[in-house]
Amino acid sequence: MVVTNGSCHCGQTKWTITTEDTPTHVLCHCDACKKLSGGPYTLNIVVPISDVKLTEGELKEYIYKGDSGNEVVCYYCSNCTTHPWHHQKVNGEKYVVRSGLLEGSEKFKVVAEVYAKYRYPFQQQIAAASFEIMPPSSE
Ligand SMILES: [Zn+2]
Ligand SMILES: [Zn+2]
C-alpha cells in the first residue's frame, strides 16, 4: 500500500490517499474542470472514500448538478479555494481526488483521458487510452 500526501496552496488543509500502487493521473477535459481549475484539463484519481483522509484543517462544500443530473459535491479549502476532491454521487462511495495536488505528482503516469471531445485544439493527446466522454465501464 502507498500513502501519498496532499496539501492545499495555503497549507491549512492536508490529506492523504492510500492506493495499492503509486497513484496515476486521469486527465479530464470537461467544461466543469476547465471552469473549476482555470486550466485546459484537470488531473484526477478515483479513490474509495475510506482511503481518503483529511489530516489537517477543514473543507467547505460547493454543490452543483453534474451531466447525469446527480449532485457533485466539491470540497475546497475555505482560505485558498484549492479543491482537493469531489464526490460525484453517481460514483457511489468514491471520491475523485485531484492527483495533481499530491506529492510527487510530476512522476505519476497518465493512464487515461476522459471528455476528450472537449480537449482544447492546442492540447495534444497524452494517454493512449482516450475516451470521448467516459469509459463504458463507468458513468
Ligand atoms: Zn488552503
Ligand atoms: Zn472534468
TrEMBL record:
Pfam families: GFA. Residues 4-132 form the CENP-V/GFA domain. Keywords: Lyase, Metal-binding, Zinc. Belongs to the Gfa family. This is CENP-V/GFA domain-containing protein. Gene3D superfamilies: glutathione-dependent formaldehyde- activating enzyme (gfa). The keyword Nucleotidyltransferase does not apply. It comes from Orbilia ellipsospora. PANTHER family: DUF636 DOMAIN PROTEIN (AFU_ORTHOLOGUE AFUA_1G03180), GFA DOMAIN-CONTAINING PROTEIN. One of its GO terms (molecular function) is metal ion binding. It comes from the Eukaryota. InterPro entries: CENP-V/GFA, Mss4-like_sf.
